Structure prediction request, 1019 residues.
Amino acid sequence: MNKVVKIDIDGLECIANSDQYIIEAARENGIYIPTLCNYPGVKPKGGCRICTVRVNGKQMTACTTPVSDGMRIENNTEELINLRKSIVELLLVEGNHFCPSCEKSGNCELQALAYRFGIMAPRFPYLFPVRKVDASHPKIIKDQNRCILCKRCIRAITDEKGRSVFAYRRRSSRVEVVVDSKLGKQLTDELAQKAMDVCPVGSILVKEKGFITPIGERKYDKNPIGSDIENITITKR
Amino acid sequence: MKNTITKTIAKYHKDKTRLMDILIDTQEELGYIPKEAISQIAEDLHMSEVDVEQTISFYHFFSFQPTGKYSIYLNNSVVAVMMGRKEVASTFEQELGIKFGQVTADGLAGLFETSCIGMNDQEPAAIINNMVFTRLTPFRVKEIVRDIKEGKPVVDMFRASFGDGKNASELIRSVVSNNIRKIGPVLDPFYKPGEAIKKIIKMKPEEVIEEIKRSSIRGRGGAGFPTGLKWEFCRKIEADKKYIFCNADEGEPGTFKDRVILTELPRLIMEGMVVAGYAVGATEGILYIRFEYKYLERYLENILQKAREKNYLGKDIGGKKGFNFDIRIQFGAGAYVCGEESALIESAEGKRGEPRDRPPFPVRRGYFDMPTVVNNVETLCSAVKVILNGGEWYKSFGTTESTGTKLLSISGDCRFPGVYEVDWGFSINDMLEMVGAVNSEVQAVQVGGPSGALIGPNEFNRILGYEDLATGGSLIIFGKHRDLLTDVVLNFTEFFIEESCGSCSTCRIVPTILMKKLKKILNARGVAQDIEDMTEWGKILRASRCGLGQTAANPILSSIKNFRHLYEEKVQKNKTFDSGFDLNAAVLESCEATNRIPNI
Amino acid sequence: MSKPIVATTSLAGCFGCHMSVLDIDDRILELIELVEFNKSPINDIKKFTKKCDIGLIEGGCANSENVHVLKDFREHCKILISLGECAIMGGLPAMRNGIPVRECLEEAYLNGLTVAGNTGKIIPNDPELPMLLDKVYPCHEVVKIDYFLPGCPPRADLIWDALVALITGDEMKLPYEVIKFD
Prediction:
């Protein structure tokens, strides 16, 4: 039962559909809620926690919480911005993110969020984990140094029988996203490209391709992530 | 091997939601889950191998490599360490000639660490091939290793008499003690199974819920959600099928009361599930038990069977037409986070025990997306008593906000560790007196396990109850001679790091970073700012999905709040900044590699 | 009032950040008017001759020498700035951090494909040589660092804006385009 509801985001009255998650409703109203693990068309799994907002005072993830009529949502508060900034910094120290050597630099959403938040250096100590690069698959490279464990690839990429190509392995700080040894070998060009596109960082790369768009002309080189959402003309609100 | 696995998969009807059981059986049969088994399981269940592996690798007791003919899992919890674990561990290593995490060259024995196994009142304890060995000493370890080398079956390795109560029964035969020290309405040994069922079938389900609501009973797992309300929500949702889950995955370090109920009063638990099933209109119950209590399996299965024979389970229960309800036991495989209700459901569906995003809550969309009530063991047991004696009677125990009684698992520095059933509203001071701890010698009490609070003597007049110290019942007492930061706070923090499911960035990373800070302070390199940083950074965890993540910094935050002086004593007074960098340590490796003497 | 004094160094870096300092083009003339340089590869002053106001650090700490130089800078400079990715997070040299030091040394001096003529199979160990650290450390994990200017290298405009702001006490302008990690 889809109906029109009114919600309030940072004092702005917004119109939304009751079957929408907060993050989608906000987007349609020209309000950007930062996220890393959310991807349009893929089942949400509040993993990165960056889209945390306050819903009627309570911390909730905007990507997994459906809107309801009369909801009061806080998004751009000092507290939440600091939290989001902290999480981006946590992810930066958790892996080995050496941007200058990365094909995704400039198109990377983690980097773009760091730019948007004006992060010059993380407040946390670098963990320098020992991680591997899996280049055993014909079409893709899986670089664990850069993986932020957002599960986008796990949720988005399945073979024609619906089997997962990517999955988590282990738990705690030892968790990693790995490629199925058999299905990884059968990956089509199309799925390989989709996997790379769905990866917010440079952890999944299509082999034998790179630097087609030069540094300086990439997605987030000139305009901050989210500015496309913030710049659309709002007709709905 | 192929046949064994084919049989196992067939036993669970090639149902991928029963993956946990398939893996548990495979692990039991083969001692590990080999590559070929994974291929076969993946093939038969129409999954990718990596998908099967993500479940395997989540759980502590599954292994990709052989774990030895005798797999020894020695608990590493705080109380185990307090009771002499160090010597026990080194004796195991010495006698077997291996380190923790290794298997002997001949494949005879494997030695592993494990988080709290629910034996805090009889530590140090270990699990060997699913049987529990308690009160270990170096001497006892030598005997055990001798027996292992002689190839004795594990059941023949006990040298002491079996534990009290049902522990000695033919179907359990374990040396575990119940240590029931104080009984109340729930632990009442004169309980007659089936009485509550006879009573409810004469009532309307709504009346059952009313009675539960009248008692004001709240969830006993710790969160304290009103039970009647939960049942009512579930009752009101229309669905083809509904489920009752009994959460017997007690993993909070220091808690063991559910183990005692499972041993002594399993029929009470099952009756509670039947009552809940009747009230909400569920037809299936799942008793989810932590793997550590696998030694109770045969005993519990037998009791379920007997209940079916008596028509307390099955079709038309108690002769009531259309009242169908049955229970199956689901074992976990070693993961604290599965105690969280939605993670428990994920696990029972054969997946990694990762908590779900809420809403929707399980009462709306739980097991197989159907309305599901998840209740703690003790909650269900108490519900039976409410039905038998009435909600008003139940309210005569406890306080206005916390009605009834609470089972406490008490351990640590006291004379009588064990299970106590007390009225809510009991003070910490009274508790200490009850368990034979000398108040003046107590430094601190951990209330509610690592995710709870560490409190000092100035708060011992506080009471147990939802209005003050809410707790799932784990109480650990620390004497004056304990080093709280090293022995307790660090151990608990390591526990949270190990038990994170890893899916929220916050819970996966922050505890590791806090531990680095804590170690820096313990190494005398800390400065005042480090205490501030920990306090500030700990707050990030509140954004985590589940209770584990949200409370993962509690050992540190709570000890900073209540024992700040311990931190302040350790930080450097004359410095405002110290990176903690140690040049001597940093050059050691390269100097060794090049045969150089460090000249700094 | 005397001019603020600036010192610079390159630890485990590639001098790219110093190149970027030079990349401020003709503003370098202005800079020379604004500040005085002390220890720096730019003027080849090898040792501190006085206390400085600003120290610019390129590169992280890969060996004991880097640590000594960095500590020397901390002692002599009121304000220390980590300049570029290597100083901030170890950068390219830190890509060895996942590999044991012994393996690195053996690869470099014994087993590597390009190793030639090391007939004595010697890994250099003269006491005069700096000792390698177990990993490459970001500068702020060794001494206190006051400001960070990211980039590989940091854009010349960022360096210019930051220096001018520090010298004049004005607020730093940080346009979106100048803060980049690549």
In short: DSSP finds six helices and seven strands in chain C. The first strand of chain C starts at residue 5 and ends at 10. The two ends of chain C are 38 Å apart (CA to CA). Residues 5-95+135-178 of chain C form a domain with the Rossmann fold fold (CATH 3.40.50.700).
